[in-house]
Amino acid sequence: MKKSNKTTEDYLEAVLMIKEKKGIVRSVDIAEYFDIKKPSVTYATKMLKEKGYILMDAQNYITLTDTGLEIAAHILERHRVLTKVFTMLGVDEETAMEDACRVEHDLSPETYEALAKHLEKYGSVKAE
After folding, report:
1. 113 and 97 in one domain?
2. How deeply is 81 buried, as exposed, middle or buried, from its count of CB atoms within 10 A (0-12, 13-18, 19+)?
3. What one-character-per-residue DSSP string does 75-123 give?
4. pLDDT tens-digit series, residues 35-78
5. Taking the CB of residue 126, how many other CB atoms lie within 10 A of it?
6. Does the residue 56 lie in any domain?
7. Which CATH number does the domain housing residue 93 bear?
């Protein structure tokens, strides 16, 4: 998998989450998701497009390239697993989601895999 930074991962994950929820993704959807101004999203999507992570059609709908989808799916799976772990520990859903977002980028692959294996053995790893 291509190396990416936290901001890139956050944007790609957001695109995938919005796509799953709405079926289409526009810059305004991303701005609403992050509660930021559209010019910030315009700059970020330009960078993502230049890196080959997204495509924009004539109507400015955003789609993930295969590489972008691979990164987004990887981060989203980590986010969902970590959210599930935290809720299983008794953390409320909103806090668990926020904490998962903080941890998903910095957790080493070794620790994540160990955690996932532990959950497979003792409980469900896949988030609903």
Report:
1. yes
2. buried
3. HHHHHHHHHHHHHHTT--HHHHHHHHHHHTTTS-HHHHHHHHHHHHHHS
4. 999 999 999 999 999 999 999 999 999 999 999 999 999 999 99
5. 11
6. yes
7. 1.10.60
